[in-house]
């Protein structure tokens, strides 16, 4: 089934935040932010700004009736800076005016006097100064200290990987309107309506039941709107509370890039030990996460880094430690993969480093160590239904890897200006929120007595096609056509206490809840039909009642009307909580993931060794979808995730200067892939597997895993660079921009 | 007052002010299908089509409405996604995008649909390369582009039987565009209103000013030059080419004489920005913004171009382009002078031209270093050389010392290696978002070598140089 939004999208009729028709008298809000990264605010003069034409009010911390606090995991993040600023882009005040232009002009008239404090932008420096968001955590399996002695080969090294700007094409925004009795409705471009509701309540000092959050869809999220859509929604809600007027904010791109956090940059030290036959016996890693100036989701992101530190490999002795380091950058946040990719990057670099030193192909070490059923991971989960070998083998066979390798060898022997590189990237990614208590969802289904159906879940549509999957569940369960069903906006009045749409779990959690609701309705409706066809097996399909597999005369609409007349409940609200999962943080052991997703990709790149530029020839993937309930949408997630991952590893370079100023602050200086920079060919094959009971319809979660195929892009380029400049020591420092490639091509020993 | 047609509707606007077409469409006319992604022409979410009469014939271009000053559409037809919708069904571009799942979050989609429909309108010889090129200014963050590529291929296939004699009626009959397009040409011909501005600050396509000074422009006294008909002509006299100042890069990339005179002209110009920006960015703007990495500045410096400056009193003077740049964004011109003409000699059988540009992203990006060279040889002797390099100092650098060194030398590996030493002595790069000093110097060397490797592949080999 094609994405149900596609028709409206191509006609320009889909409604995003900034497309909501404004009520008369709507005011505009512009955040006013810090221009230094760390300072005491000794004075602020708003006088000129407040008197400018079109300015209604300037709101600051002292106007907040509740708490000046929006920290989700840790209470360490004020909505408005109060006395001190900890990063450039931290919001100090909110300017409210009759137009955005008026607000922008007024912003230039605000005078802030700063007393500057020392600035830290680097995670290792923060660690050295003991500036941590929270105490470090470590995962341990076996005993690495003893294991080193058994190793034939031991290698150590360091890796660095930069952050990534989400670059959702729709920027952050929110629109608040007053209702009666001090209640407020906020339309928010958020992945987490409940999180927004909770923070609005906290800051405004009112109960959650007075706040309605409504989200129709997002123009892209990628994690950037999981926690960081919240401040803007809280700000407009606060302005609405104070002014009793509708207040809107749709952020300018450069404001958005400057004020919001990104994927976490990480630095890491690793030590890897292998046996003579290339079994990895021991692995130690220390991750330094650059969290930025407040916790945001960093503790959870760091946790997922630890969970994925050994990627798809079984290593009997592991010690993985992570520090969440506090720096003077905007608080970094969720981004597709959520720390997992950064964890995997280090083990892949360690394997490549070992392979280069031993003169073997990294693929040999990778394959030798892939997980199998029964393997225990460092956090205690015992793997079942592993698909690491099957996807690897299918990928090698169906894309004829050996022939490709031979072809590339010949190419490199006969070309001096152009060199090709090859890399394989296996993935193994855990599905579930690592915070067990978040793995639940609810769905509300109403059948109206004309037979039409309306559905609300906690899932937010952001292009991933979750609403289409929800529709499929309804139509399949109730046996009705898609046109009878409307998937409504995500709204906190209809579905309460939701988890954000994140962790690739949106379809699984909400889909399971929705399936339960539909099954309950189905049973009640079948009971109605049963009265007329006693002792026969009732089914609903093709919009008709079937009795003993024979079509009856009762249509869907007839059946609904009968049920209505008989006073049968035509609404259902169901709750689902993932079974089997648990985790004990005090021991760092448990079974945090419902299941894992596997896959293998092969990357081929050509590097122009004169200019340092590169093009990807192909990426071939075998992916474990389970039983995909929508191959069209799932393939779209693979292609999109892969390209986003390649972007992170190649072009996308976030640059902060030493003063903590974002230099790559616009689309002109921060480059995401365009149509010419994607691989010439992307081939995706589905591995036929049973799927997993905890996946909706056995169709495995697909949002985040494919991003990690992108890691292969880095190592493919490195392979090509090595072909040109073989005997040189290369750092591991992503992204591999054309600049770093050229410098490495001509680096001397 | 300005007057134009927005989709089907005639718009009269008394004081267009200095608003952009984008703001007008979305907030004055409440057409919310056109999206805001970046407001600097780098994402294409706001792409619209603009149709205007060229010698009596209606021609369309795609353009980023975020950088288009509203007065620049005076007398034209502006098409937004709403104006491409057919009653009761999808148009061909929309259908292809739906069929191939080329839309996920959908926010970039109207921009793509506009660019694709624009290709349907403008293509003379529909082919996949051209169709992809038409969407080269559109950024999508969800799909990874493969599905969009497939949609584009499908659209191209459907265009194969396009009637080039009666394109509009063919496109209407075949569901590419709605029926009202049939009347647009005649409706525009009935327009006869003139729009004159005589403000202090000249603005051409707006592609740089609206990026650099968006907020300030709101209150500036602007002089709109884009449509002053005297300013958009390309002419040839013998081996000399003259460009009027409002010539766009798209005018140049499609010019037959230039395509013939300079091999690879198309490929070089494809490296300059993206289709919708090339359609509206003017050549004089590229020179006058004084950027040290302006692609066209570098190109024209190496063609040893001369420019004509004209002041308010209509007095003109000519000077070599290389004398135009005095310091970072400091130009050899008075407040009221504007560039009215650019003249250069076309390369001929004895002289060869090459352009190189490296940036983070190959297309739609600003160079880390860009460089061009024109080298005239007689036998094995370099008799004249003009070269320029951008991104290596405060101004777009005409490489006078390197050129002087090369002149009258025999073409050889040794000479090029020595010339590279001279080249480095002329450069003063700084570290910034586009690269470190070390990188820019290395890249300068590599691209300098690339000129000779490309132009004299028989005698000059990469392996001998590095």
Automatic annotation (TrEMBL), chain A:
InterPro entries: Ald_Oxase/Xan_DH_a/b, Ald_Oxase/Xan_DH_a/b_sf, Ald_Oxase/xanthine_DH-like, AldOxase/xan_DH_MoCoBD1, AldOxase/xan_DH_MoCoBD2, AldOxase/xan_DH_Mopterin-bd_sf
SMART domains the record matches: Ald_Xan_dh_C
Matching PANTHER family: ALDEHYDE OXIDASE 1-RELATED (PTHR11908:SF132), XANTHINE DEHYDROGENASE (PTHR11908)
Cofactor section: FAD; Mo-molybdopterin; Mo-molybdopterin cytosine dinucleotide; [2Fe-2S] cluster
Species: Flavobacterium psychrotolerans
SUPFAM superfamilies per UniProt: CO dehydrogenase molybdoprotein N-domain-like, Molybdenum cofactor-binding domain
Record-annotated Aldehyde oxidase/xanthine dehydrogenase a/b hammerhead domain positions: 11-118
Keywords assigned by UniProt, alphabetized: 2Fe-2S, Iron, Iron-sulfur, Metal-binding, Molybdenum, Oxidoreductase
UniProt protein name: Xanthine dehydrogenase
Family statement drawn from the similarity comment of this UniProt entry: Belongs to the xanthine dehydrogenase family.
TM ranges: none
Domain of life: Bacteria
A molecular function (GO) term: oxidoreductase activity
Automatic annotation (TrEMBL), chain B:
CDD domains: fer2 (cd00207)
Residues annotated as domain 2Fe-2S ferredoxin-type: 1-84
PANTHER family for the chain: XANTHINE DEHYDROGENASE
Keyword Oxidoreductase: yes
FAD-binding PCMH-type domain: residues covered: 163-349
PROSITE patterns, A to Z: 2FE2S_FER_1 (PS00197), 2FE2S_FER_2 (PS51085), FAD_PCMH (PS51387)
UniProt GO MF annotations: 2 iron, 2 sulfur cluster binding; FAD binding; iron ion binding; oxidoreductase activity
Matching InterPro entries: 2Fe-2S-bd, 2Fe-2S-bd_dom_sf, 2Fe-2S_ferredoxin-like_sf, 2Fe-2S_ferredoxin-type, 2Fe2S_fd_BS, Ald_Oxase/xanthine_DH-like, Beta-grasp_dom_sf, CO_DH_flav_C
Pfam families assigned: CO_deh_flav_C (PF03450), FAD_binding_5 (PF00941), Fer2 (PF00111), Fer2_2 (PF01799)
Signal peptide: none
Name by which UniProt lists this protein: (2Fe-2S)-binding protein
Domain of life: Bacteria
Lineage summary: Bacteria, Pseudomonadati, Bacteroidota, Flavobacteriia, Flavobacteriales
Organism of origin: Flavobacterium psychrotolerans
Keywords linked to the UniProt accession: FAD, Flavoprotein, Iron, Metal-binding, Oxidoreductase
